[in-house]
């Protein structure tokens, strides 16, 4: 079946603007994760959803970042008043059930804030 | 919180030789340890994982070992091939917490 998909693949925006990044998880996967990967570094956890609710949002850097998953499938990561330091690849992953199961990653959205 | 350290940051080996990448973790509650391979511009892909109830797992040319007492785990790739060239990340996940904490990555280069 189809893997995790993310749109857009690239997003260029200006400092101060608002952006939305979308993630389509593997069909039937109840868990969804957002990570951020800066150049030359490992992915850094942002937020984890189990179903519709955010089970762990401890990785969100500040209140400019917010994520939703209203129907327990597609998720949107929202960044307000973007800053140059927000530039990174934003990765989404999904897994089948609660517990330590394999996380399947999407291709990422490369965000560039000018 | 959990902290994962990965070494070396770069590794260059001759084709056919073995490569070993090592990681240490800080929290003894961690119980799941995956390894991801990431090619340039591509998504991370799981290549092997191990849970804390076993000490070693092997899949063809790839093996992972886990030492819970010392809190470290290692990736072993034997008979390396040019297509093994990539960045490899280790990660750890704590019991009851689903997030993965990643190491800093190892850039592996296989020289023909």
SSE topology:
The complex is a heterodimer of chains A (114) and B (112).
Chain A: E1 5-7, E2 10-13, E3 19-24, E4 31-37, E5 44-50, E6 53-56, E7 65-68, E8 75-79, E9 88-95, E10 104-105, E11 109-113
Parallel strand pairs in A: 2-11
Antiparallel strand pairs in A: 1-3, 3-8, 4-5, 4-9, 5-6, 7-8, 9-10, 9-11
Chain B: E1 4-7, E2 10-14, E3 19-25, E4 30-38, E5 45-51, E6 56-59, E7 62-67, E8 72-77, E9 86-94, E10 101-102, E11 106-111
Parallel strand pairs in B: 2-11
Antiparallel strand pairs in B: 1-3, 3-8, 4-5, 4-9, 6-7, 7-8, 9-10, 9-11
Short description, anyone?
Chain A is built from no helices and eleven strands. Chain A has 114 residues and is mostly beta strands.
Description:
The complex is a heterodimer of chains A (114) and B (112). By secondary structure, chain A is an all-beta fold. In chain A, 0% of the residues lie in helices and 48% in strands. Chain A has strands at 5-7, 10-13, 19-24, 31-37, 44-50, 53-56, 65-68, 75-79, 88-95, 104-105, 109-113. In chain A, the strands form 2 sheets. In chain A, strands 2, 4, 5, 6, 9, 10 and 11 form a 7-stranded mixed sheet that branches. Chain A is globular. The model of chain A has no long low-confidence stretch (mean pLDDT 94). The radius of gyration of chain B is 13 Å and the shape is globular. In chain B, a hairpin with a 2-residue loop joins strand 6 (56-59) and strand 7. Chain B has 112 residues and is mainly β. Chain B has strands spanning 4-7, 10-14, 19-25, 30-38, 45-51, 56-59, 62-67, 72-77, 86-94, 101-102, 106-111. At the A-B interface, strand 4, strand 5 and strand 10 of A face strand 4, strand 5, strand 9 and strand 10 of B.
């Amino acid at each position: 079946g189809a893997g995790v998909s993310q749109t857009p693949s690239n997003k260029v925006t200006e400092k101060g603007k608002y952006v939305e990044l979308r993630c389509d998880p593997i069909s039937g996967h109840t868990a969804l994760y957002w990570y951020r990967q800066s150049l030359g570094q490992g992915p850094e956890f942002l937020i984890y959803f189990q179903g519709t609710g955010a089970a762990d949002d401890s990785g969100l850097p500040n209140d400019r970042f917010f994520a939703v998953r209203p129907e327990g499938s597609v998720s949107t990561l929202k960044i307000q008043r973007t800053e140059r330091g927000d530039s990174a690849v934003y990765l989404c992953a999904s897994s089948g059930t609660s517990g330590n199961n394999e996380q399947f990653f999407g291709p990422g959205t490369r965000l560039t804030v000018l | 919180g959990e902290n994962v350290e990965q070494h070396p940051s770069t590794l260059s080996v001759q084709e056919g030789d073995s490569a070993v990448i090592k990681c240490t973790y800080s929290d003894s509650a961690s119980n799941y340890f995956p390894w991801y391979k990431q090619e340039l511009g591509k998504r991370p892909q799981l290549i092997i994982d191990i849970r804390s109830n076993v000490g070693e797992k092997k899949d063809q040319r790839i093996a992972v070992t886990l030492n819970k007492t010392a809190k470290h785990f290692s990736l072993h790739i034997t008979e390396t091939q040019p297509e093994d060239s990539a960045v490899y990340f280790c990660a750890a996940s704590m019991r009851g917490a689903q997030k993965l904490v990643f190491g800093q990555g190892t850039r592996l280069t296989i020289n023909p």
